[in-house]
Write a structure and sequence with these properties.
Belongs to the cytochrome P450 family. GO terms for molecular function: heme binding; iron ion binding; monooxygenase activity; oxidoreductase activity, acting on paired donors, with incorporation or reduction of molecular oxygen. It comes from Paraburkholderia acidicola. This is Cytochrome. By secondary structure, the protein is α+β, with helices and mostly antiparallel strands. The chain has 18 helices and ten strands. It has a domain of about 280 residues: Cytochrome p450 (Orthogonal Bundle), CATH 1.10.630. It has a five-stranded mixed sheet. Strand 6 and strand 7 form a beta hairpin. It starts with 8 loop residues before the first helix and ends in an 8-residue tail after the last strand.
């Protein structure tokens, strides 16, 4: 197997038959110089408990791009972000970020999510084509992050475009030289923008997340300016496309399972469990990466130190050894009462998981409540992004016959 198998039109359209065929060859598949893991038990152990697996980002860059790749600004910046770190650097930075996030009240995050959803729903019009991706799912998370950081909403589109370009660097397949150049340019734009924001917050601090990060002092530990810039960019990247694509994927899954959609309409108290099930069924996050920090094994199969391990969450979430009827959406599935593996686990548990769930619950709940006659009109002709790490559609067309119900 090679990377080309993860980059075909059939794979982008529906990777799950490929995962099932792949699993017949075993739960650990070599893709030189890496190992792809597809089994739920194996991935759960690595994600939740195995301290011998961690992050070695620049080594992974060297493997894919050679020595010259390590000097690229995009990869240097990514290596300084929380997602790519191991302890003790990870421990220090996560503690500071958690202090900053914990300072944001839960009710405030919920209110920001709801107001953002309602503003976008209010703008939808009856009896005209609607693209739920460009008019709702994509702008909602970026608007929420802008509000949390007190960034003007009319900058959201510009920031979203640069963040999307930057986020290409998270892909499992190597980028072309042109793609690296575009990602570097996007990073430069974002660094310049947030450097100016930080200067403004130093002069005029507020209650926003960036002001909070500037004020954090944990027994003498503080953020450097670059740490704030790089991790604010990371928060935008991690909280933007993952959530927006998951809103789209969840709507597609529910409308393709009308019995489950009607059950959710009748029993809105199932919303959180339904979202967990949608993330299991068709997660926007398909692959995450770890590196063996020392010689280890997974269920008896040796993994030498330095091996880059790709955890196929898409395959894991359809593992028939873990889930009955894995290819069917069942919102009352017992396993979906628990958070899915897409939020990772252990020391790398997603820092923004609570905000992501607020956003997903608010987005889906608001659509179901305020757009009762919503119809998706391109379910049979969806165009999926040409990406193997992040899964989502380019557009999700819909119509409504009446204006949205009152908030």
């Amino acid at each position: 197997m090679n990377y080309a198998d993860l980059a075909s039109p059939d794979f982008y359209r529906d990777p799950y038959p490929f995962y099932h065929r792949l699993r017949k060859a075993g739960n650990l598949i070599p893709i030189a110089p890496r190992t792809l893991i597809t089994g739920h038990a194996e991935v759960a152990r690595i994600v939740l408990a195995d301290r011998k697996m961690g992050k070695s980002y620049l080594e992974a860059v060297r493997t894919r791009y050679g020595e010259a790749g390590i000097s690229q600004p995009i990869f240097q910046a990514l290596s300084k972000m929380l997602l790519m770190m191991n302890p003790p650097a990870h421990t220090r930075l996560r503690a500071l970020l958690m202090k900053a996030f914990n300072a944001r009240q839960v009710d405030l995050l919920r209110d920001i999510s709801q107001s953002s959803a309602d503003e976008l729903i209010n703008a939808l019009q009856a009896n005209r084509p609607i693209d739920l991706m460009s008019e709702f799912a994509l702008p909602m998370p970026i608007r929420i992050i802008c509000k949390i950081m007190d960034v003007p909403l009319d900058h959201a589109s510009m920031l979203g475009a640069d963040v999307s370009q930057f986020a290409q660097a998270f892909e499992a397949a190597p980028l072309s030289p042109d793609q690296i150049a575009a990602a570097n340019a996007a990073l430069e734009n974002l660094e310049r923008y947030f450097k100016d924001v930080i200067a403004t917050r130093r002069a005029h601090p507020g209650t926003d997340l960036i002001s909070t990060m500037l004020s954090i002092n944990d027994n003498g530990e503080t953020f450097s300016e670059n740490e704030i810039i790089w991790n604010v960019i990371f928060i935008f990247a991690a909280g933007h496309e993952t959530t927006s694509n998951m809103i789209g994927n969840a709507l597609i899954a529910l409308y393709r399972h009308p019995d489950q959609l009607e059950k959710l309409r009748a029993r809105p108290e199932l919303l959180t469990q339904a979202i967990n099930e949608c993330m299991r069924y068709d997660s926007s996050v398909q692959i995450v990466q770890r590196v063996a920090l020392e010689d280890t094994d997974v269920h008896g199969i040796a993994i030498p130190k330095g091996t880059i391990v790709l955890l196929s969450l898409g395959a894991t979430n359809r593992d028939p050894m873990q889930f009955d009827q894995p290819d069917t959406l069942l919102i009352e599935r017992p396993e979906s009462a628990n958070p899915p593996l897409v939020f990772s686990g252990g020391i790398h548990y997603c820092l923004g998981a609570r905000l992501a769930m607020f956003e997903l619950e608010t987005a889906l709940g608001t659509i179901l409540r305020r757009l009762p006659d919503l119809r998706l009109t391109n379910l049979d002709s969806l165009q999926w992004h040409q990406r193997n790490t992040l899964r989502g559609v380019t557009s999700l067309l819909a119509r409504i016959d009446q204006h949205p119900l009152a908030a």
